[in-house]
Fold each of these.
Amino acid sequence: DAGITQSPRHKVTETGTPVTLRCHQTENHRYMYWYRQDPGHGLRLIHYSYGVKDTDKGEVSDGYSVSRSKTEDFLLTLESATSSQTSVYFCAISESEGEGNQPQHFGDGTRLSIL
Amino acid sequence: ILNVEQSPQSLHVQEGDSTNFTCSFPSSNFYALHWYRWETAKSPEALFVMTLNGDEKKKGRISATLNTKEGYSYLYIKGSQPEDSATYLCAFPPGATNKLIFGTGTLLAVQP
């Protein structure tokens, strides 16, 4: 299994509070991704990173920010959580060779509930 | 809007049956097509990444074919087993990028 650890695994919080999810990898892969998974939508990309301090938006980036200060860590922050951000969040990683043709390896997910 | 469609949404088969399902994607500006297997309470696991028209990939009893000109890929499972029960996702990058657009998957249930 790819060495990907997401924390926390579960979190319940209230609307308006800040929330940070962490993804840690031990594979030294260049690319890291944050997805959310909702019924009827499948996996949707929130943000991704192509190197330390290099990030880009995905298709559902509004309300989220990310940071990557080290190769191994990619943080997802909800500055002021809303109920629509209740979801399961997955981190993924991939190697850098060949744009788009490297498989992505996923963490175990974080279940986030915002009340 | 670039989109990927998977059909059927769900499939129930008996142990030993062979089955297949479809992923449709935009045929223009093709770079790659990914297949993932996602078991309940686990995380998605990469099966195949296909890049060339006519590609065929195989992993055990699971195989996949790719037609980039008409924009579809088939995933086949030969002699389904209960442990094959999972959601099978396909995804493609809309360009020379690692951003993937995922379909909503085909949920396969194999009855013993």
Amino acid sequence: DTEVTQTPKHLVMGMTNKKSLKCEQHMGHRAMYWYKQKAKKPPELMFVYSYEKLSINESVPSRFSPECPNSSLLNLHLHALQPEDSALYLCASSLSPGGWNQPQHFGDGTRLSIL
Amino acid sequence: GQNIDQPTEMTATEGAIVQINCTYQTSGFNGLFWYQQHAGEAPTFLSYNVLDGLEEKGRFSSFLSRSKGYSYLLLKELQMKDSASYLCAVKNTDKLIFGTGTRLQVFP
């Protein structure tokens, strides 16, 4: 078990559906991240939230919409996804964004399949 | 550009020592992390280097040479449970940029 909790663990959706991925941490971390990971590939950064504000968007398509309602929660809203968006979506958090020796702690991920 | 390279796959025998290398060329550097990831699970933090030299944590050690853009992870007394992917990641301001990952298989 990890200290970063992601729900749901698995999600199957059609290309016209709207769904949301949720991430929660109660470690007092002020930086939160979304990554996308394809099979046998490393995680790729999508978004960074720093003190509840979006600080980095790695040119992610607008069909992915992040939201940080408070310092413990991070959502990723999904709409009109494509089959190539099928992947493992990982959430991570760290104590503060620029901290030199602060590791990111990852959740177990949501495995997303687009039909 | 950002390049972080690792060998794709390695094999080793239980009880042995294995060294996983990582070379990097990045636009910025705020430290280098090593993560372990078992199939279908979250990456878990193993070690961190920001200054040159060796950091030791139990069976795992990590080395960094900033001038050479080089790091390695050393795993001693290998166990079957060490079969996993090992990810080298460079921190650049707020970003963590992962290397290609090394799949390690430990045989009895």
Amino acid sequence: NAGVTQTPKFRVLKTGQSMTLLCAQDMNHEYMYWYRQDPGMGLRLIHYSVGEGTTAKGEVPDGYNVSRLKKQNFLLGLESAAPSQTSVYFCASRPHQQGAFSEAFFGQGTRLTVV
Amino acid sequence: DAKTTQPPSMDCAEGRAANLPCNHSTISGNEYVYWYRQIHSQGPQYIIHGLKNNETNEMASLIITEDRKSSTLILPHATLRDTAVYYCIVRVFYNQGGKLIFGQGTELSVKP
């Protein structure tokens, strides 16, 4: 059972380039999240999804787009990368359990550097 | 979701109890307290959660004050592997949107 898998693990981009980060979960979870973490800071929510075909903005959505075409995948896109987007990106998923607590599971992170 | 305040860093001797405080003075009646930790830039890991009663599991204990304005996460016998950033989060249990907002957290250093 792989859990939450992020691809790629490392990437260096030039300013203005585009790329897509892939998050895949094999636990049939409804909710999925993208966070970014900058040095010395906590995680900040970029976008999230409560189900296939739905997305919503988090705390810091500007400069990013997301898509959830399949339940198991949540894609994070950078259309025109900027140095300010240099960060570690974490994906997470969580099941919907009516009337019960559900724990969030995190991937191992993607380290992105924009030069 | 209520805002939380945690000390930026703490030290603890190996084998001793680590007590990590969290203030959440604006917490409302239907909001739970959750704790996650992040070890050395790995993805965060769930530890424990509670509403108003004290909770204990195999990892830690959670003590919530009677007025629910603060809580303490207790690692009873800290080991070097418990060195991590600990996040206290307050949110509604049934939040369908599922937004999980992290604060700055407390960086716990367990020393030999």
Amino acid sequence: DAKTTQPPSMDCAEGRAANLPCNHSTISGNEYVYWYRQIHSQGPQYIIHGLKNNETNEMASLIITEDRKSSTLILPHATLRDTAVYYCIVRVNTDKLIFGTGTRLQVFP
Amino acid sequence: GAVVSQHPSWVICKSGTSVKIECRSLDFQATTMFWYRQFPKQSLMLMATSNEGSKATYEQGVEKDKFLINHASLTLSTLTVTSAHPEDSSFYICSASGELGTNVLTFGAGSRLTVL
């Protein structure tokens, strides 16, 4: 079973930051937090992952709370092409990915 | 970056026939591949894990004789849906890991199966 809880849907205005929350209160010490997104009828796309430090790459930033029980994915300047379902997944490296229901992000003009 | 290719991207077949879907890692050797399926408006459901040179491990409720998985090489895994029925119509997606220096799973673009 998925170990994360995400809001089912969110809206964001184009050009604004999209902040997607994720709760993972039962996360283990060796589990990473991964974020993927799925644009309609495509395979999931990797966004970012982290263990306990905040991470940033060209796509997004990942903020993990100090107790690691929750995290936030930040898309700094959302565009219409960021409309997708975003999945937050906790996983021990090399293990399988178990998807939850994700957050459907709708970016509007 | 790592690329995973799936073929075919879509297929239509008659009920009772078998369909094979290929998953290839194009620029890295994938020691492990995962197969998922996704019904409309639902999340991805893991079907099985395949390791090169050994038998696949199926998730609970997935029939191994129905969904045959072969991981014959470090760059190719195949999923065969045997005796397909309309309820097998779904979006099948594979992912692969094994690229040196990363544990990130890379996903294929998916294969949409429609059984008439």
